[in-house]
């Protein structure tokens, strides 16, 4: 299961309210970065057969089944720090992260 904080859910609802056919917030990973994996957050334009769907704070969270073992139990927050803002990932499966916080390893 993946949960969103209220701030993350509010931001996701803002994205989902824009014109288009978004089913929910898609979270995943990709191989990259100095630590191995990088988080991906984007709009889910459709739900695929191998997707897992959760609901948190009234927002559908969509995760591909292959990424779920890396993200299960994660909490997603949204924060602003100076000029930077974005989703922040509190992942209990991450064993280490790079210095910039953009990538992680398991």
Account of the 3D structure:
With 106 residues, the protein is mostly beta strands. The chain has a single domain, classed as Hypothetical Protein Aq_1857, Chain: A (Sandwich), CATH 2.60.300. It has helices at residues 6-16, 68-71, and strands at 3-4, 24-32, 36-44, 51-56, 59-64, 75-81, 84-90, 96-97, 103-105. The chain has a 6-stranded mixed β-sheet. A 3-stranded mixed β-sheet has the order 1-6-7. A hairpin with a 2-residue loop joins β6 (75-81) and β7 (84-90). The longest helix has 11 residues, at 6-16.
What attributes does this structure have?
106 residues, mainly beta, Hypothetical Protein Aq_1857, Chain: A
Strand content: over 45%
- Specify the CATH architecture: Sandwich
Report the top-level CATH class: Mainly Beta
Largest sheet: 6 strands, mixed
Helicity level, as a percent range? 10-25%
Element order: H for helix, E for strand: EHEEEEHEEEE
Radius of gyration based on Cα positions: 13 Å
Structural class given helices, strands, pairing? mainly beta
Stretches where pLDDT is under 50 for at least 5 consecutive residues are none
How would you sum up the global shape? globular
In total, how many domains does the architecture comprise?
A: 1
Give the full name of the CATH homologous superfamily. HesB-like domain
Stated plainly, the CATH topology is called Hypothetical Protein Aq_1857, Chain: A
> Taking all residues together, what is the mean pLDDT?
88
Report the count of strand segments: 9
Distance between the termini: 17 Å
Number of H- or I-type helical stretches? 2
> Strands of the largest sheet, in order across it?
4-5-2-3-9-8
């Amino acid at each position: 299961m993946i949960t969103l904080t209220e701030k993350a859910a509010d931001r996701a609802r803002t994205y989902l309210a824009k014109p288009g056919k978004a089913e929910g917030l898609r979270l995943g990973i990709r191989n990259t970065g100095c630590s191995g994996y990088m988080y991906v957050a984007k709009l889910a334009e459709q739900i695929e057969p191998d997707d897992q769907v959760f609901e948190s704070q009234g927002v559908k969270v969509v995760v591909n089944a292959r990424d779920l073992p890396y993200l299960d139990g994660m909490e997603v927050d949204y924060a602003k720090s100076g000029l930077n803002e974005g989703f922040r990932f509190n992942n209990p499966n991450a064993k280490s992260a790079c210095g910039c916080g953009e990538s992680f390893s398991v």
